[in-house]
Automatic annotation (TrEMBL), chains A, B:
It comes from Gasterosteus aculeatus aculeatus (three-spined stickleback). Residues 227-655 form the Anoctamin transmembrane domain. The keyword Ribonucleoprotein does not apply. One of its GO terms (cellular component) is plasma membrane. This is Anoctamin. Keywords: Membrane, Transmembrane, Transmembrane helix. GO terms for molecular function: chloride channel activity. It is a multi-pass membrane protein. Its main location: membrane. It is found in: Membrane. InterPro entries: Anoctamin, Anoctamin_TM. The chain crosses the membrane at residues 236-261, 267-288, 341-366, 378-406, 427-448, 460-482, 530-553, 620-642. Belongs to the anoctamin family.
Length: 680, 680
């Protein structure tokens, strides 16, 4: 099947690696020490950090298992211990290991993973070693065919699928039990032996990327291809969505500006704006699906089949046999999990929502009291008093959010989901609902209970602007400042008195520095922020048309701060070959459905509309409800009518499938006719 | 790849066929004449009827193409001309051909189609000839491994994929152009050369099936497996749905009876009934998805990949290259089709709906006038006059339905859809909307404009009962009566004076008799009927709780009349390996959403509820709307929470995929290590 690969003996590219290692841009000047003395003889891609008190026996076993051939159940990866830094301290953890792989191994890993690469004819096909010369960018074995993100992803996957054989426990660590066929790395992670696995930054590439991305302030698209190249598809999709979302809001912002400038308060103009908004929200969400599948097709994740998901590291249960794989693994009855979800988590979430409602009511009471005090006897101090409830409320909400977040993580962990994806979905749902409630409950109260449109507009503006500013500060500048301090300390420690750039740190120090950086926890918070902004724009758009303008401005700075955060603040994350934005698409769509309801009610409640039905409130409400139902129906029909995948990509996908079927059929007929001939 | 198949020379089972043919149950007594004398030397499965004036040259060419080996682009099927009947007439079409196939050919056809059969371990797998002995019911080559429906489906598929090679037109018929790679049979059908292709009934099997199905009146489930065996999955799914639907309505019927018996008119009881109804409708539709996927899994259609759809016979356009297959075929720009759909069909449908509304208004005017005449001076004649508007309206609606149906078919044909499925979807949508409107517009008018609940209940009962009776008559008994007359005539003609059973007709006469039977046009009308019944039950359930009882009774007789119709009235249809009920699932779900809206409004309008809000209509409406929105949200969440495929089937499916991946991986690693060893 793969004669071309095996024609060349394995490891023949060592010269290339040595040369690569001695490249000053990659590993720093003068770092080419002899192998075994702290610096590896291959391009290091991923770092494994074991607990500093891990027994030697366990380490030896793990390394030999990683180095063993695939035929013997190993991974055939290259792994070496990281030497001490230039200024070694006793506190330093000695058990840091660098992992790399030969090109042969990476290519065969890419085939195992079913990575899609561009074929000679421009279509995307699953990479196979037998066919490698037919792929567009494949020039030799040591070329840039695979991006560093892909190499790291392959190595991570290979490490993850390193399975226990007949060992019953980790040698030297009898408490860490192993089950045949289960992932060793996940077991070590869940037992705390393995502290972390992270991919290394590549200084030169990162410098180029950050220059193209955020260092020059200019009007241009983000370098999505480069982002994907360096961080993988999941990240690139987030930034693609951020960019798309910003552009999609521009028409709404443009239409919103004159409302602000000319102080339009006519009901018919608001109706026009709100209707446009509702249709527009539906259209942009549908078009994003098309856009996202175009990107995913171009990046080869659209039709890639997901590998079998392993249980997440924290999953526990009674030992049994997995009905799918037939392997021994802990099982946990689904019914029990459902009970936990519906009898504990759901009531807890509802209780928290009730609590949040309660806090909100207290806030309104306090504000009413402060206002009455101020109105009775207005002084400077009562003026300040008026601000206190808002500030208190904002602080309490922040604290509640934090506590709830921990509680949600704890509960979701306790629900004991087998798969990471199911864990993520449950966590996202919990956090989403609570955040939605916290952000918008007061606005809903003002809009529908107090029915005070002026106050609604004020609160909306205040909330939107303060949350934007706070977010930008909390998200990027605070961690950066902390990181910078740590960084400087390390540089100072090594080159006492000298002022040097980061990139001239020796490899060992660089690795340790990266190991200490904060871990990027995925795109969750970034999407959540966009989701809430979308809520501000869509839910009450007919009251505050300027919201879109503010969000557009925020998004433009968000691009820069997020980019900066990714490049400078966090550890490099493993790439995540996502094909779409997942559960967030659903969340945004749900928001746009709620927006139809709120906007229709707001318009129905406006005094100008009420003036049209002077005699009968009933008529007014019936009309409002009828129009709302019509809009909802229209939304669903629109969603149904716009195909999720653009025509030309559908054609490409069907062509690939057609070709593979035809080839199979032809092969079968040929074989049958040959056998018939031979029999005659 | 397939050594076992080719070990045995092809055609070695002729003895088995001869024996099969001489079996009196299959072909009738004394029918085993020598081959070539009208009766074929193989089991005939499918009949091709060519136009009686087709040139001999074209027939010869077609037969040789069908008989040619697959290697040469033929189908390797067996085909012979049908001889004259026992009482041949000049009017008879001589160009009737019987098609059959060897078992080898059928098995390799099953592999081509990717038919799923039960494996030794109880799971369903795609059949492959190489693996045939590992399938559960496979005992030899001439066994009952494939059902007759499957054999016929395979033969139809093989005939359909008989493609033109380098011929530019059909020999002898220069007007029938051929394009390389396009289906010959479809071309002949669209040009009217081929009149029909239909599968033959199998008298013995049909007798057994009809006995188990409808001949004994008993309380038991339908023989779904036998139905599937004889008619294929599409039919069996329809009958499965009919049965499921009937059972699902039983709880609603049981709850509805006391309302009728005790004349309950309390608002709270109605609210309970309506709420139960709404939740129940959602639940049964969701559970049907699970049920349907269980059936489809058992029948092996759930995970079968659809073959490439060919353009439908009527499709025309400018010659070009298909972007998927690269073959030359007529192309028709999508934009042009969209224009036709949105600028002609859509306005036409809306116009028809308007017309139907107009007719309805005339009906109400006439009825009002008749009532006023009757009230002014009640005599016997004015009493009759009161019925005239209803009768007229019913007749006009029937006529409009008929005309509209033709118009819809014409329009959908004119829209020039490339695929049969897309044609069907557009047709179903058009007919559905109009029928929905015709059936329910008057009820909506009575309910929401006249707000007369007593009249609503009366009209609902009248419409439901009359439509049921009419349907049963029109659908089964009328065609049966016509068929019976034709049948008797033929029997009388042959056995002058003798009274004999149908099955003793000679093969040639039997085939000609079947060719004259009405063609079964698919499950469309059957589903449409169920859809409208579902509407009667769900839309106004809180007004007329007895509707469910009536529908249950109707469905029980419907099972018998549909079964009877399938077995005795219509030509046998080709089996259709459906995995679900397709667009009808969507239609039923849409109906259940509309039901939430109508029921909430009906309850909100009821005087008892109004009495709860004596002061403010507004409060009442706001509450109604809020509850309606809550119910809709609950419905969507429920739909989302109930998984569409039962857990154990999901596990089975993933296990199959896991096994095939593991096998592939193992094969790859083994090969790689062998090559490495050889190199050393």
């Amino acid at each position: 099947m793969k004669p071309k690969v095996s024609d060349q003996p394995r490891g023949c590219n060592r010269a290339a690696f040595l040369q690569r290692n001695s490249d000053p841009g990659v590993l720093g000047q003068g770092m080419m020490l002899s192998a075994g003395n702290g610096v590896p003889s291959f391009t290091p891609r991923v770092v494994l950090e074991l607990a500093s008190d891990t027994k030697e026996e366990a380490i030896t076993w793990l390394l030999s298992r990683i180095r063993d051939t695939q035929y013997n159940g190993g991974t055939e990866l290259l792994v070496e211990q990281l030497g001490p830094g230039a200024d070694a301290q006793e506190k330093e953890n000695p058990n840091m290991f660098l992992v790399g792989a030969t090109w042969q191994r990476l290519l065969s890993g890419a085939e195992d993973l079913g990575l899609f690469k561009e074929f000679n004819d421009g279509s995307m096909r699953a990479f196979t070693c037998a066919n490698k010369y037919n792929f567009k960018d494949f020039k030799g074995d040591g070329d840039s065919f695979l991006s560093t993100a892909e190499c790291q992803y392959i190595i991570k996957h290979e490490l993850d699928t390193l399975r226990a054989k007949d060992e019953t426990h980790v040698p030297g660590l009898s408490r860490v039990k192993l089950y045949p066929g289960k992932s060793v790395i996940r077991r070590l992670l869940s037992k705390g032996i393995l502290i972390q696995v992270f991919p290394l930054h590549e200084k030169e590439e990162l410098k180029r990327l950050s220059f193209a991305w955020y260092k020059k302030v200019k009007l241009s698209f983000q370098p999505l291809e480069d982002i994907r190249h360096y961080y993988g598809e999941g990240q690139a999709l987030y930034f693609g969505f951020l960019e798309y979302f910003t552009f999609a809001l521009v028409p709404m912002a443009l239409i919103g500006v004159p409302y602000y400038l000319f102080d339009w308060e006519d009901y018919d103009k608001y109706v026009i704006f709100a209707s446009f908004n509702l249709v527009w929200c539906t259209v942009i969400l549908e078009l994003w699906k098309r856009c996202s599948s175009s990107l995913a097709y171009r990046w080869g994740t659209l039709s890639r089949k997901k590998a079998f998901e392993e249980p997440r590291p924290g999953f526990h249960g009674v030992l049994g046999f997995n009905p799918v794989t037939g392997r021994q693994e802990p099982l946990y009855p689904n019914a029990k999990r459902q009970l936990r979800v519906y009898l504990v988590s759901l009531p807890f979430v509802l209780l928290c929502l009730y609590l949040s409602l309660y806090v909100m009511m207290i806030y309104f009471l306090m504000e009413g009291w402060a206002l009455s005090v101020h109105d009775a006897e207005p002084t400077f101090w009562t003026g300040i008093l008026c601000f206190i409830p808002s500030v208190l409320y904002a602080v309490v909400i922040e604290i509640m959010n934090l506590i709830y977040r921990y509680a949600a993580e704890f509960l979701t962990e306790w629900e004991n989901h087998r798969l990471e994806s199911s864990y993520q979905n449950h966590l996202v749902l919990k956090v989403l609902v609570f955040n939605f409630f916290n952000c918008f409950a007061s606005l809903f109260y003002i809009a529908f209970v107090m029915q005070d449109m002026v106050l609604l507009r004020q609160s909306l503006a205040t909330l939107l602007i303060t949350s934007q500013i706070l977010n930008q500060l909390m998200e990027a500048f605070l961690p950066y400042w902390l990181q910078r301090r740590r960084n400087k300390k390390m540089v100072r420690k090594i080159h006492k008195g000298k002022t040097l750039e980061d990139q001239e740190l020796p490899l060992a120090n660089q690795v340790r520095l990266e190991a200490d950086m904060s871990t990027y926890l995925g795109t969750f918070d970034d999407y959540l922020e966009l989701f809430l902004l979308f809520g501000y724009v869509s839910l009450f758009s007919c009251v505050y048309p300027l919201a879109a303008v503010l969000v557009v401005l925020n998004n433009i700075t968000e691009v820069y701060s997020d980019a900066f955060k990714m490049c400078r603040v966090f550890k490099r994350p493993f790439s995540d070959p996502a094909a779409n934005i997942g559960v967030w698409q659903l969340a945004f769509e749900a928001m746009s459905v709620i927006a139809v309801v709120t906007n229709c009610s707001l318009i129905g409640m406006s005094p100008q509309v009420k003036a049209y039905f002077p005699d009968s409130d009933m008529q007014l409400i019936l009309w409002t409800v009828a129009i709302e139902h019509g809009l909802l129906a229209f939304k669903f029909i629109l969603t149904f009518l716009i195909p999720d995948v653009p025509k030309h990509i559908q054609i490409n996908l069907s062509r690939l499938e057609f070709e593979s079927r035809e080839a199979l059929k032809k092969k079968k007929i040929l074989e049958a006719s040959e056998v018939t001939k031979a029999a005659q």
